Amino acid sequence: MTDRQGTSKKKTAKPKAAGQKKTSKKCEPLSMGADWTFDLIQQYDEELARIAKEFRLDTYPSQIEVISSEQMLDAYASVGMPLMYNHWSFGKHFLGNHQRYQSGKMGLAYEIVINSNPCIAYLMEENTMAMQILVLAHASYGHNSFFKGNYLFRTWTDAESIIDYLMFAKSYIAKCEERYGIEAVEEILDACHALMNQGVNRYKRPRPLSAGEEEERQTERAEYIQRTLNDIWTTIPTQEKAVEETDERFPEDPEENILYFIEKNAPLLETWQRELVRIVRKVAQYFYPQRQTQVMNEGWASFWHYTLMHSLYDEGLIGDGYMLEFLHSHTSVVYQPEFDDPRFSGINPYTLGFKMFMDIKRICEQPDEEDRRWFPDLAGTDWLDAVHYAMESFKDESFILQYLSPKVMRDLHLFCIMDNEKNAYLEVEAIHDDSGYQQVREALAAQYNLGNREPNIQVYNVNVKGDRSLTLRHFMHQNRPLDESANEIVKYVHRLWKFDVRLESVDGDSVRKTIACPDSPERAMLELTK
Amino acid sequence: MSMIIDRRLNGKNKSTVNRQRFMNRYRKHIKKAVSDAVNKRSITDVESGSSITIPKRDLSEPVFNHGSGGQHQRVMPGNKEFIAGDRIKRPPSGSGNGGSGQGQASNQGEGMDEFTFNINHDEFLEFMFDGLALPNMREKQQQDMMEFKTHQAGFSTNGPPDRLNIIQSLRGAHARRIALSGGTRREIRQLKRELREMEVQPGAMDNERAEHLREQLKELNSKLKKLPFIDDIDLRYNNFVKVPRPSNKAVVFCVMDVSGSMTQEIKDMAKRFFILLYLFLQRSYEQIEVVFIRHHTSAKEVNEEDFFYSRETGGTIVSSALEMTRDIITKRYSPSDWNIYVAQASDGDNWEGDSSVCSKMLVNGLMPLVQYFSYVEITDRQHQNLWREYESIQDSHPETFAMEQIKSVADIYPVFRRLFEKKEA
Fold this sequence. Notes:
The structure holds 2 protein chains of 2 kinds. Chain A is an alpha/beta fold. Chain A is built from 23 helices and 9 strands. Chain A folds into 4 domains: 33-150 and 293-333, no CATH class; 181-231 and 251-291, no CATH class; 349-450, no CATH class; 455-529, no CATH class. Chain A has helices spanning 17-20, 38-54, 69-77, 88-102, 129-149, 151-156, 162-180, 182-194, 211-233, 239-244, 258-265, 271-292, 294-314, 320-333, 349-365, 369-374, 383-393, 396-403, 406-412, 437-447, 450-453, 485-497, 521-529, and strands at residues 62-67, 111-114, 119-124, 415-420, 425-430, 456-462, 470-475, 501-507, 510-517. Chain A has a 4-stranded mixed sheet. In chain A, strands 1-3-2 form a 3-stranded mixed sheet. In chain A, strands 4-5 form a two-stranded antiparallel sheet. In chain A, β7 (470-475), α22 (485-497) and β8 form a beta-alpha-beta unit. The longest helix of chain A has 23 residues, at 211-233. Chain A starts with 16 loop residues before the first helix and ends with a helix. Chain B is α/β, with parallel strands linked by helices. Chain B folds into 3 domains: 25-57 and 114-130, no CATH class; 161-238; 248-420, Rossmann fold (3-Layer(aba) Sandwich). Helix content of chain B is 41%, strand content 21%. In chain B, α10 runs parallel beside α11 (354-366). The longest helix of chain B is centred in the middle third of the chain and has 35 residues, at 166-200. Chain B is flat and about 125 Å long. The interface between A and B is large, with 107 and 70 residues.
């Protein structure tokens, strides 16, 4: 949860619970002051666990670590993981964050939570007691249950082994640095990082791994790859026959996981270099579900910190002071600047997710005529079943397509515009009205489809029998071209592949643009003759 | 059940390695930024750290992204007056936000073309003095400028009581007791076993024998008791050895002309130069003393304030200052204990007849004493007479004498670098 400084001008209406249930107070608040202690955290955690159980939140055991703001900056730099291999880019992020934090341009997150078993949550020592409770509810119960319950995390990541695996990766990379030099390792890692988003399997489920197995398997794999590699690249005896079969491509079907393809097939990579490619690929795969469930994950966690805090308040375990502080923070977190606001930087996933989960609850409990029309299966059912089902079975794209209600669209004043380069103007295609709901919903869902958001680039062909050149294809989505960084990345691919690399942007069957490295065949020839 | 762990005491500098990697990778950029900063900064500010700015494109981590163009549908919040079918003027590119809310990667420093971060004082100096070396250090070290430092080296069997090492002593005593009592205790065990066997087998009881055994046991036990708990030979003392090491002391003589021809501007430049020198030496020596000598027709040792800010007029006799430097060295700073550096700044004016005296004084009196003599002439005019005189000294002492000309503020740092550049042997 990021601390969005200065975004709290707009206060949402105070929740009903605040006034209503005062009479049913059973206990004295456990604490009133701003300072936290380990005892209090423990006590509140027990209470939260009890309430969470009543709401059927199934979580990994949580490990709560109290850290200082410097340590939080450290954690930021290594993508939140408790341990990570060393790379200059993490240093760069650290320096950037540090600078902005010190100059007051950035607030730190109240917490970071890691999808592992046990689920590790970092609390900052600077937080007040009220904030610590909020963070516990958000991270240790909200995010934690999402990690354990959502189908993407269940299929794609293995919470049991990620820490082990990172340990293996870190020591392996350190060993490589010792042996081959930091620069040689960085060269490979830089290239792999550029291709990280193209290093995930979108459809094929990976096998779970543990560090011990991984180390064992790594040696076997090394031998196996070198052997099969030779099979692909033996050209000598079948040379003449091969020339005739030019239609056949390798790989037969385009391969979406470029890093995987390079790891298995790059002709000149050394064994340790392949292993580095693999490590980056594994890390990318681990984060893939996170990128696909931003709205749901944050929405779910916000929904539960909101619900749990109110339960605590209803039972009298926290007082008015804590509640007001919580509400202040909550409203800043779920604040959505409007499109013409200078602070606007896209749709706030906290807002959208929180509103949608709250709306599911509303539809279940107090459906109106419109809801019955739009959500006949949902209206009037048990809200707890409904939100659990939604959390478990969707990702952002399908979640929005399934559950974004007209009411949420109206509340957020969502509208959809079309930017077509052929026109000099932008066109408003649909707004939050009866004729537009469906279209806005579909457009927003599509916006969260990673397949649309990121360029679709796949390995198309390798000239196996000839110059070993690699052809990547960018299948254009709605005619959108790649931005300039593509040139750089093609150079990185060339660094890994070591023979000619071409990247073709295709629209249908026609090639629109080609980026090659080395730049042109003539130059390559020149380099050869030198 | 949650586990709560206090991690605040764990190291907080987990990112140090990565930070270092980053700095190494962009060494060239940082060095350039540092040298710009040195030239731009006010004089009193050289001591603090600095913020370093590097153009963003030089350190990009590219990923595939959609560029502008094609058809692009976006959903935005906060509609006020639009209805379906409205046409809006396209906002100028760049200001349009990437509506898809791509999260962190795009939020970070959007719209900033430069990457800025802070380095601390030490790092700043490291980059500032990177590739520079103190001239003639090695020769000096081989000579007699030795100082001693004591540090612990194991244990000895004798020494003063205050160095007694209790753990080692008791450990030794324990070992001695085990070693010396081993035989006796073995015997005791044997006798005891015999006695016990006798007691459990009533038939084999031999009173006389038993009595004898008890006697023997008693004797052995008393023998054991006589073994001293701690003995003189057990005592161990912390042992210290003296290790010779090079002297860490240096003295810098700042010599400046304050005659009428030196304007405040020239003195500022001189001051910058002196400060650079001071900072540089500070990195190599633990203890530095600075002696300020200013001169017009006569020389005077002054404090820092007077040195830089008081104004005097009159002619210029450089040799007076050199003479004074030599006198102070012989009186207070013996070359066997001190590394001696002299830095002279002047606009180059000197009384016509004095220049040859200066060079004689340098060659015969000063040069044998000092580690390094650097002369900067701060003037945008032609070289003055002192320069020509010094040229001959530079020829005869290429190792220990250097001179450069500073024409403007921007020259100071480059000139400084030239004077102290690491020289290939």
